[in-house]
Every structure is written in C-alpha cells, then in structure tokens.
UniProtKB/TrEMBL annotation, chain A:
<feature type="binding site">
    <location>
        <position position="319"/>
    </location>
    <ligand>
        <name>Mg(2+)</name>
    </ligand>
</feature>
<keyword id="KW-0460">Magnesium</keyword>
<dbReference type="Pfam" id="PF00346">
    <property type="entry name" value="Complex1_49kDa"/>
</dbReference>
<feature type="binding site">
    <location>
        <position position="66"/>
    </location>
    <ligand>
        <name>Fe cation</name>
    </ligand>
</feature>
<keyword id="KW-0533">Nickel</keyword>
<dbReference type="GO" id="GO:0016151">
    <property type="term" value="F:nickel cation binding"/>
</dbReference>
<protein>
    <submittedName>
        <fullName>NADH:ubiquinone oxidoreductase</fullName>
    </submittedName>
</protein>
<dbReference type="InterPro" id="IPR029014">
    <property type="entry name" value="NiFe-Hase_large"/>
</dbReference>
<dbReference type="InterPro" id="IPR001135">
    <property type="entry name" value="NADH_Q_OxRdtase_suD"/>
</dbReference>
UniProtKB/TrEMBL annotation, chain B:
<dbReference type="GO" id="GO:0051539">
    <property type="term" value="F:4 iron, 4 sulfur cluster binding"/>
</dbReference>
<keyword id="KW-0411">Iron-sulfur</keyword>
<keyword id="KW-0408">Iron</keyword>
<dbReference type="Pfam" id="PF01058">
    <property type="entry name" value="Oxidored_q6"/>
</dbReference>
<dbReference type="InterPro" id="IPR052375">
    <property type="entry name" value="Complex_I_20kDa-like"/>
</dbReference>
<keyword id="KW-0479">Metal-binding</keyword>
<protein>
    <recommendedName>
        <fullName>NADH:ubiquinone oxidoreductase-like 20kDa subunit domain-containing protein</fullName>
    </recommendedName>
</protein>
<keyword id="KW-0004">4Fe-4S</keyword>
<comment type="similarity">
    <text>Belongs to the complex I 20 kDa subunit family.</text>
</comment>
Length: 391, 138
C-alpha cells in the first residue's frame, strides 16, 4: 500500500524551505515528488533594474554559502561581453577566494551530513575548524560571508602581504585536520555502514539528469569547469580532479573531503606565485552584446548569461545554479532505500534551494522527462515540422 | 499564568527556526552559534523541531507569496506569549528585494516582531546580543 510522507516546507532537517513528498510502501521509498518555489525572490527580475556594478551585490545574495560563486560567474560573463581581461593579480585573488569558499562549503556539508546521520560530534568538530576560515574571510574582506570580492575587471580588495602568513597558518591547520576527518569518517564502521551503498546514482543516471559538481564526480562522471574550461588562475596551478566510481553517499563524501586537499594545494600555489601589480582594469562601458560566465561552485557548475544594449544596466540576466539539476537526480537516487536513509540521500547532493529557485518546472500528471526523453521529444518535433514544411 | 510563562521563557528559551526565503547565510549563522565557539546551548537555548515546543521564533529571509501562509501557520502553532526575533537585514526590511514581484514585505506587516537584528548576515555575537536584549525586555 502506498503512503505519502511529507517532508517540509518548514522541517527541522534542513534550514531552507523545501517540500518533498516521499511515496513509500512500508519502509521502502518508491517515489519522490519535489516541490520547490518557497524561496523564489525574483533575482533575474531585479537584476535589470540595477547597474552593472550593483548586480554582484545582488547575485551574491542568491545563496549565502556560494556567495563567491554567483558574483564570480556573473563577473566572468560581463567580462566576456565587454572583452576585458582582468590583471593577473586579481585573477589569483579571485581563485584563492573561490577555493577557500569551496573548503568552507564542503565542511558545512560534512557537518550537516554528520548531523543527519546522528553524529553530532562530526558536526561540532567540522564546524569548529570551519570557524577560523570565516575569520580569515573577515580579515581579508571585512565580512564573514558575502565577501564582495568580485568586481567587473578585477577584484575589489587586495590580499595584503602581511596576511599571507595567516592564510598559510590556517592551511597548515586545515591540512592536518582534513587528514583527521578523512581517516575518522572512512574508518568508522557505523558511518561507513550508513553511507556505503546508499543513494546510489549510476553514471548513466548522472548523465541523463545532467548533474554537476561532486554529485557527478562521485558517480564516475568527470566534469569540472576548472579543468574543462579553465579560467583565471586555474590553468596556472597544478591539481587533480577527484573522481569516484561508486555513486553512493560515501563516494560523494570522499570527493568533497579530498577536494578540500586539492583546494589547499591550489591556494598554496596561488599564494606562492601571486604576481605584483594592479588588481583592477578600468571598465568604462559595456558594449552591446552578450556574454556567458561559468564557474565551478562547491556544488557544481554555475552558469550566468548577460545581455547588454550598451546602457549601464543589463537587459537580461539568466542564472543557472548547479542544485537545479542535482536536486532532480534525487528522484532516482532515493528510490528503493528506506525512509531512514532518505534524509541523508536527499542531503547528499548538497542541495541549495536558494540557488535553485530561479525557474519553475511544471510537471503535469505523472510524466517525468529524462534527458533522453527530452531529446526524443525534440527529435519528434523536428520530424513533425519537417513533414509540415514538405507539404 | 502569563507571568509564569514569561518567567519560563526567560530561563531557557527554546527556539524554532523559520526560514522564509533566505539566502542561507543567517540560517547558517544560527546553526553556527550552536557549535563549539559560541555554544549557546550552555544557556539552555535549543533548536527544536516543532513550533509547538518553541518559546521563540527566529525568522530569517524575506516573505514571499508562496511562503507567507506557511509562516503564518507556524506562528499560529507557536504557544503564546512567544518572542519573534527577526534576524538579518531581509527580515527587518526587504531592502535589495524591494522591486521584486514575489516579495511582499517585512515580517512586522503580518506578525508582531520583538527584536530586529540587522546585518547581512549579522555576526553570531550580534545574534546572541539580540536574544539577550529580547530576554531582558520581558
């Protein structure tokens, strides 16, 4: 017999409003319905009412956890549109902040995942070592979150020479603690039992649902904007892409933990090789045209599109956040597991509903479209049109 | 009875967290003050899972058309008297989201708010100070 277990919208499990309907048979989850939209604030509508330089402050507030990723992608998009290359020093600064943000976001997820499986010790310990990182942000940029470091044509603030040792010192601490967490989490038999072979997302499904970020890399699908289409300082540093084949929650956790090590490596190299010079190219006007910007946020690829008509405001600004695709993959990942695992599986993609709520997807009836179905529909439509034009 | 409840409120307020349409930052900072550096559980402040157990509501984010009825329902379920603490600039005023078609204004238009803690996001120290001030007001 089928029953529905509603989760949300104001559920203590996750701090954001979202609504899941778990359709269960006994203990087993057989289907999932996702209902979002509680968080829609209309960023794409507000953006064309602001000037080019004001928009980073708005897109920063799309999501507080990736508050560097959205302005980063936006700034890359506008620079693409205006054909501006920022000075090398600013590129290194942006890369450093982007990577530090990845560490803070992955730690946040790790802590919450620990909380979801009832290991509050993991939560407390991980967040304890996340705290000095927020202090570092405050030191460099004046705010613990919402850093406002990205600016069209460069960076808004410089990293001072005397702050370098403090960053290095934190990285040393983090390297040690990250090794500890990795060992603790991989060695603990209970955590392993809870995470291993739970919420498996196969590589085919990962591709069909177009997931990105650690969710894709945990399923053996190597996709990373930093490697595939390097920007700023990412092609000047040496680092590895972490990919695991299993597709379960443990694989996603491993990807995130090991990515923190890679981020530490990137930040170290950036600090070592950071060139001197100005941090900003002056951009006087944005010519008519369009531009795209892609940045690998902690959760996956953030995509921004802007169109300009030569005025001081964007005409159109489109945002696509990684969680938009990742959340949809929950439908296949959660199917067949027990209700007790559902909380963890739903959280394993590191969902960010604030980022996601740009567009509404309306599903009518029971029909769900995978990438292949959509392609098929598209092909059918072309065929139909072909027939019509033949007549 | 009212006084007894107020006295009870003062000792160890249990809080329920209502995130209307936040950007997550205030919410993360609220969780942050439970973690070792600030550790407000020392003072008996506990995040609870149901508004029916709560003495105070921590509201964050702006209100929009879809979540207003839900937020009002959560407020209705909270036993009165209760404290409503608006955390973050968005909860105090829509600010940057003012022009949006979906954002329908600050909390105090719909529910009585006791304390406003502005900031984007407010620092954990500021949140703790705000809660202390709210308790002193009782």
């Amino acid at each position: 017999m089928r029953r529905v277990v509603p989760i949300g919208p104001y559920h203590p499990l996750q701090e954001e409003p979202e609504f899941f309907k778990l359709i269960v048979e006994g203990e087993k989850v057989v289907d999932l319905e996702i209902n979002i939209g509680y968080n829609h604030r209309g960023h794409e509508f507000i953006s064309p009412t602001l000037t080019w330089d004001q928009v980073p402050f708005l897109v920063e507030r799309i999501c507080g956890i990736c508050s560097d990723s959205h302005p980063y992608a936006y700034v890359l998009a506008v620079e693409d549109c205006a054909h501006v290359t920022p000075p090398p020093r600013s590129q290194y600064i942006r890369t450093i902040i982007g990577e530090l943000e990845r560490i803070h976001s992955h730690y946040l997820w790790l802590g919450l995942a620990g909380h979801f499986i009832g290991y509050n010790t993991v939560w407390m310990w991980v967040w304890r070592y996340r705290e000095p990182l927020l202090d570092l942000f405050e030191l460099i940029m004046g705010n613990r979150n919402h850093y406002a470091i990205n600016k069209i044509g460069g960076a808004r603030r410089d990293i001072r020479k005397e702050d370098f040792p403090k960053i290095e010192k934190y990285l040393d601490l983090l390297e040690e603690k990250n090794a500890m967490f990795t060992k603790a989490i991989l060695d603990d038999p209970v955590i392993r039992a809870r995470l291993e072979d739970v919420g498996v997302l196969s590589k085919e499904d990962a591709i069909a649902y177009a997931v990105t970020g650690p969710t894709a890399r945990g399923s053996g699908y190597a996709i990373d904007v930093r490697k595939d289409d390097p920007y700023d300082a990412y092609d000047k540093v040496d680092w590895n892409e972490i990919v695991f084949e299993e597709g379960d929650v443990l694989a996603k956790a491993k990807v995130r933990l090991l990515e923190c090590d890679e981020s530490i490596k990137i930040v170290r190299q950036c600090l070592k090789n950071m060139p001197e010079g100005s941090i900003e190219t002056r951009v006087d006007e944005i010519p008519p045209g369009e531009g795209i910007g892609r940045h690998e946020a902690p959760r996956g690829e953030v995509f921004h599109y802007v169109r300009s008509n030569g005025s001081n405001m964007p005409v159109r600004h489109k945002v696509r956040a990684p969680s938009f695709m990742n959340i949809a993959s929950n439908v296949v990942a959660v199917r067949g597991y027990s209700i007790a695992d559902a909380a963890l599986v739903l959280a394993s993609v590191d969902p960010c509903y604030c980022c996601t709520e740009r567009t509404f997807v309306y599903q009518s009836g029971k029909k769900k479209y995978s990438g292949q179905d959509l392609l098929k529909l598209s092909w059918e439509k072309t065929e139909k049109l072909k027939r019509r034009y033949k007549k | 009875m009212g006084n007894a409840k107020l006295w009870g409120l003062k000792k160890s307020p249990w809080v329920f967290h209502v995130a209307a349409a936040p950007c997550n930052n205030c919410d993360i900072e609220i969780l942050d003050i439970l973690t070792p550096r600030w550790d407000v559980e020392r003072f008996g402040i506990v995040l609870v899972g149901s508004p029916r157990h709560a003495d105070a509501l921590l509201v964050t984010g702006v209100l929009n058309r879809k979540n207003l009825p839900r937020v009002l329902e959560v407020y209705r379920q909270t036993p009165k008297p209760c404290l409503v603490i608006a955390i973050g600039a968005c909860a105090c005023h829509p600010n940057i989201f003012q022009p949006s078609y979906n954002v329908i204004g600050p909390y105090d238009k719909y529910i009585p708010v006791d304390v406003y803690i502005p900031g984007c996001p407010p620092k954990p120290e500021a949140i703790i100070l705000g809660v202390v001030k709210a308790l002193q007001r009782l």
